[in-house]
Amino acid sequence: xxxxxxxxxxxxxxxxxxxxxxxxxxxxxxxxxxxxxRIFLIGVGREGMATRAFAMRLMHMGKEIHWxxxxxxxxxxxxxxxxxxxxxxxxxxxxxxxxxxKEAGGNICVVTGSPSGRTARDLADQVLFLPAAVYRGTDAxxxxxxxxxxxxxxxxxxxxxxxxMMLVDEDPAQSFEKMSERHRNVx
Length: 187
Known about the structure:
CATH superfamily: Glucose-6-phosphate isomerase like protein, domain 1
Mean pLDDT: 95
């Protein structure tokens, strides 16, 4: 398949995914993020990279953000939010982290393409369902001709960016100019 055949198929997949998303689910997620003072995030692989990009934008908004794997990450306390991205809903070490966070009193939000997975089912206080084909996923989602979890990972980055833009748009104290002032200035 050449470039001119491939990009329309990919764009069509994106359109199908975003048309299938439940806006109320996004709204609930946005409210949780807005109302949380300390937010911890975890994800692995390419979906972890999309989640790290989301963490960066949350920091640019002025949120206190911590990436679970960083050595400087403090302990989770009651009322803190852990956003765990698990495409297939069943990544063992992320499940373990969610168990520990739950024991510490944290609120767990699982972002997944497979909400029937055990972490979403057994531990999540909230699930954000992104209905895109994901590697080893088992739920009804938009299928993809792309390999493994490409569609989920790509749509995750776009969805997280949209969430940030909507949060900024809804908050009169926020602006993209203010966000840019918080951007790292030592690079």
